[in-house]
Amino acid sequence: MTKTSDLSERRQQQQLITESAAAFAKRELLPSALRSGSISHTRWQGLAELGLMSLLIPEDAGGLGLKIGDLVPALEQLGKPLLREPFIASAVLAGVVLAGSGTPKSASLLESLAEGVLIPAVAWQESYDLAGDHTSTKLSKENGGQNLSGRKILVTPGDEVDGFIVAASGAGVTTLVWVAANAEGVKVETRRAADGGEAATVHFENVAVTDDDVLSVDGAALLDEAQQLATIAVCAELLGLIRGAIDMTMDYLRTRKQFNRTIGSFQALQHRATDLFIQQELSAVAISRAVADFEMATDSRTRAIAASRAKARLSSAALIVTKEAIQMHGGIGYTDEHDIGLYLKRALTLSAWLGNAAEHRARFARLTLGEAA
Amino acid sequence: MTKTSDLSERRQQQQLITESAAAFAKRELLPSALRSGSISHTRWQGLAELGLMSLLIPEDAGGLGLKIGDLVPALEQLGKPLLREPFIASAVLAGVVLAGSGTPKSASLLESLAEGVLIPAVAWQESYDLAGDHTSTKLSKENGGQNLSGRKILVTPGDEVDGFIVAASGAGVTTLVWVAANAEGVKVETRRAADGGEAATVHFENVAVTDDDVLSVDGAALLDEAQQLATIAVCAELLGLIRGAIDMTMDYLRTRKQFNRTIGSFQALQHRATDLFIQQELSAVAISRAVADFEMATDSRTRAIAASRAKARLSSAALIVTKEAIQMHGGIGYTDEHDIGLYLKRALTLSAWLGNAAEHRARFARLTLGEAA
Amino acid sequence: MSAPAQDWNALSDDDFRKVVRTFFTTHYPEHLRYSPSRRRLSDMRGWYDTLSQHGWVAPSWPTRYGGMGLEPGKLVVFIEEQEAYGVARVPDHGIIMVGPLLIQQGTDEQRLRYLPKILTGEEIWCQGYSEPNAGSDLASLRTEAVLDGDHFVVNGQKTWSTLAQDGTHMFMLVRTDKMARKQEGISFLLVDMTTPGITVRPMRTLSGHEEFCEVFFDDVRVPKENIVGEINKGWGVAKALLSFERLFLGSPKLAQSALSRLSTLAVLSGRVRDPVFRDKFTALQLDVDDLNGLYRRFTAQVSDGEKLGPDVSILKIWGTETFSRIGDLIVEVSAGAGMIDGPSDFEGGSFDTLSTFYNARPSTIYGGTNEVQRNIVAGNVLNLPST
Amino acid sequence: MSAPAQDWNALSDDDFRKVVRTFFTTHYPEHLRYSPSRRRLSDMRGWYDTLSQHGWVAPSWPTRYGGMGLEPGKLVVFIEEQEAYGVARVPDHGIIMVGPLLIQQGTDEQRLRYLPKILTGEEIWCQGYSEPNAGSDLASLRTEAVLDGDHFVVNGQKTWSTLAQDGTHMFMLVRTDKMARKQEGISFLLVDMTTPGITVRPMRTLSGHEEFCEVFFDDVRVPKENIVGEINKGWGVAKALLSFERLFLGSPKLAQSALSRLSTLAVLSGRVRDPVFRDKFTALQLDVDDLNGLYRRFTAQVSDGEKLGPDVSILKIWGTETFSRIGDLIVEVSAGAGMIDGPSDFEGGSFDTLSTFYNARPSTIYGGTNEVQRNIVAGNVLNLPST
Questions:
Q1: CATH of the domain spanning B3-118
Q2: CA of B140: how far to CAs of B136, B143, B217, B335, D299, in Å?
Q3: Which positions fall inside the Acyl-CoA dehydrogenase/oxidase C-terminal domain (chains A, B) (predicted)?
Q4: Which residues of B touch D262 (CB under 8 A)?
């Protein structure tokens, strides 16, 4: 009986979170916001006020101590009208690293994050490939202090960011350190992402790192967990995006006329619409399975399999759906004047970020079938 | 001017051959003949009387000395009503080897072939994979004579066959020898092919080989050329098969009624029918290109590229088309009572024989991009 | 007759899995494992008896009717273990279709008359829906039943009746009012196949099996009480059954077992280390995993007492097309052996390269073609205007 | 003005190839090579002048009208070399559409008036077919032209007019008889874009370029003699042009150059040795090769003086969908760089990962959507009954 009531309690809580996210989405979000290109601090604050920033943060670190499954339905709501703010990059990826760090520095950063006044980014990637080499950035002891040098790419968010959690090779381990965006020796070159946001190439040249700035000396496992969580969270946003794109496209098919007929009455389009709906439903079940596996997982391999399972499906489904959505809209879908194109652009960005479908399929294969010949 | 008149002369000759093949096909061939499962010696004789057996055989070997491009349109005609007889296996693959051999033995076999009284097979394959190892069969000198031992698989035709051209490893080279089907030490186990024909696993156990039986001491290049020719020839048969399956299916779509409508008026089926037609047209141009490249080729690599180009397309297109043909016919297509299923079965057989689409794509990649990592 | 009902749902999934696994390894005949095509009754009779003796014939029926009463999660475990061990289907139209239908819409007399004999295997059911001119278009059916005193007199022809040659009974749709519009005037009838005037003609399929039959009805007299539901309301009865059927047709069983076969072949042929194969295999693995997820969602819906909506059609589409893609890859990986009918020798053992491919062909056709399923989803789920 | 006509067809293909290659390497500006998206006139003006000075503007026009008079085989060589060297398109509606049309169906006066200025580049043409409610459904167009003395008075709106902001002239379809049935009562008109009452509004596309325009007509007076063909018979004129267009839209150029870009990326990213990539690349390579074969077949038909049939639609379908698949693989191979707009740095150089993907989007839509093309093939080639 305890089990059941726990479950229903959890379901009630999820529903509450989802509803408040949906209300926020309805009130504050519009796909067209992607066109402006910039992060809204008001919306960021709004997300913080919803309590979303601290949802995954353990209670002993001042958070709500909830699980990824509790966040997923809310993210779906935010993804549907194309949330532009870097919630997953800053609040999930960076947030989970900060929560796991447990230093005074991370505690204070986490507090600012929860208040909606901090935008952190994790700088972990050095190659475009998920499975590439990301360990050339070095943390070295010099003159009593520590020094960070290297280059990180695709750092997200790349604009309006207050500081970076940098993964660096120290003494044979991956060390995570905090570097303020305005620290000496930090150079940020932004790159426009497909969705209009910014990702950055960040150069670190002999950046001084104090002992306070070290968030985790041996932080590989922590970073890994945060990445898998963020990957599943991106999938939830993509599911919302898929639902949004399909809704918009079905509306169009139900109203647009060509050849004296509503185009949605053409059987070829109907069958393809069904295939998009199938992609949506597969996406939903893929996330459910990934969430369940992740929450039960006790090792990093299982977590990675869960994340790859979801991202392989969602990255692929989002592109299938949004490409077809453009085709079904015809010419108008290719102009920047119709919002359906924004769904495609956002899909391109989120599909590639943290590994695209092919990369996650390959990782899934490696983890489930063993190394190839 | 010579060039043009040569061309038009060739075109006229091709047309003649094609027309007589078409007439033969109309008179003698029916898809349902596949159901009987056995080779018809009358039809075999008929093919010989058309002159098809000696079409590719050089004039100095008593043939017509024509090229693969002259045979292709005729094979298309024969493929359309699903020729069951092993023309390509016996007259092209074995015929070309015999013609290139130039020994008294091969001359006499060639003569019987041209008369339609011989059915030879080439036994070259030892692994299911085109790129596998096919060289375990050994020809060894013993007690003054030579001895053949080994096992060949997928030998086509596997029934009614008079003898085998066997590829064996001799003194560091591939030697081609003739072995009569009833020779001592030969054991033939037939395997039913998808199309109802027979392929055989042939065991050679210390089979005595006389010097006369040696068709080519160093015969790798000859065998290779014959295989590439046969591969392109199979493609021509497959193109005929594709045309036949599409014609039959379009007829069905134009006449069958469901839901009070001719099913061919359903747009989803119309669009898929268009895709089948595209596969057919791509197949036709793929063969043309392969024929042109093959006829211009001066080295085995170019010939293999030409053959793989065509077989990669045709093996794939034939399965796409025949599977869709079954689906479009609905339940009746899945019964053995309707001929459309025979097209699928024949497509399965010819798609796999001499290498399927994936194998030929891989070979094409190897030959054009170099070895993989 | 059957063992006392047991509360299987009280076990943990893991424990239940162990029980099921032990049951199969103990009782299921070795020579019937991993059957590449549908088995006839004669092969499966012994296993049917075993299931019957242990009360395992009807996993999904409520215990009060002699079923195992498994909740969806347990049912999935059951199916997974069945697949993993390569257990073949018994002739199961009675178990899967007639049983649930009578439990839901039959009379007490019908339940009492028919359910026990399904559980014992004394009576084997087959389906009579399709007709030569009403394949996926069931509303066009023409076989008619005219009331004559206490009997209906049935005349007409059914086709695509799976293994009807082994059936003792048929559940069928007949037209009882010729004047009514297409979907009205249809009734749902239970027919004893030994009634005079019934002729069964097996049809050979592409793969060479006699899996389907044509069934001819010539003045066949069927007692009036054999109707299920009201007269002329058979379309509604059939529709309820159709969503069961779609759930069943969309079950991951086919795709799951095809994927196991593909794995086996990959090992036998050595392709398991080929990166190109691994890429394709992984995509299919994920397709099957998500099919499983979809299936559980719909079965959970049923067990929560919800009616299945038209969206269950996606399960049939995805299940059968995934199955079909796996069959294609099996043929591709088979290379030259893909031209051979029946088992081919590989170094590690023998393998039938074409059976999955053949079995996949009708799967996208029967139970309402996938084209019809897509029409249903477009019209009734996505609310696109009718063509 | 232009160099004396030369008999290019007398050269062997190989020799001609050398001439073309040398021409490009000598004259084409380095900084304009391999342009990821359509170039504006301002960028291409110098190159247009160069082509003009050498008589190379119109490769396919007969020499007597100032073209190069290339036969299909030579034209393919020309296009191949153009692609290989990464030569961008000049604004070419005049060259590809208006020229061939006037040569075929124009009056001598029209030919004399318009052709030379296309060759010099003084006049740049744009297209006025589509309207907001008549995209692929051209017969529904509503822009009307009413005869008033010696002039037509044009009112209405066109859209999807490629680079109309650079055009000096537009060829357009207008409705001249409102009472006639849909495809009748349409005329084909040549319009000077400087005529009062014309407003051009560029539209930004997904990829951020202003590649298409809306064009508004408000009491625009067009001389009566600017009609091509007979009044109310413009549909036939347009149809002749449409098969030219389909041939052009189905040209392997886009797919071929996308495949080169994919090769480049494969080298830059090191994926060229990855077996999974090689498998996918090879499939696309063969798709492009067969597209080339198909294109040659249709161009040969044109050069043999045969009319193009409705089957030319398959060229447009296959060409654009192959192009689109290549764009997809480029994004896939780009991995993380697939999220970046504009050039990304790779070890061996920089590469724009999304441009091909974006360019592929409209290709399956414009010139009659691929859905419309499939309808055409089904109805007019396969003779399937109309829906």
A1: 1.10.540.10
A2: 12, 10, 12, 50, 57
A3: 230-366
A4: none
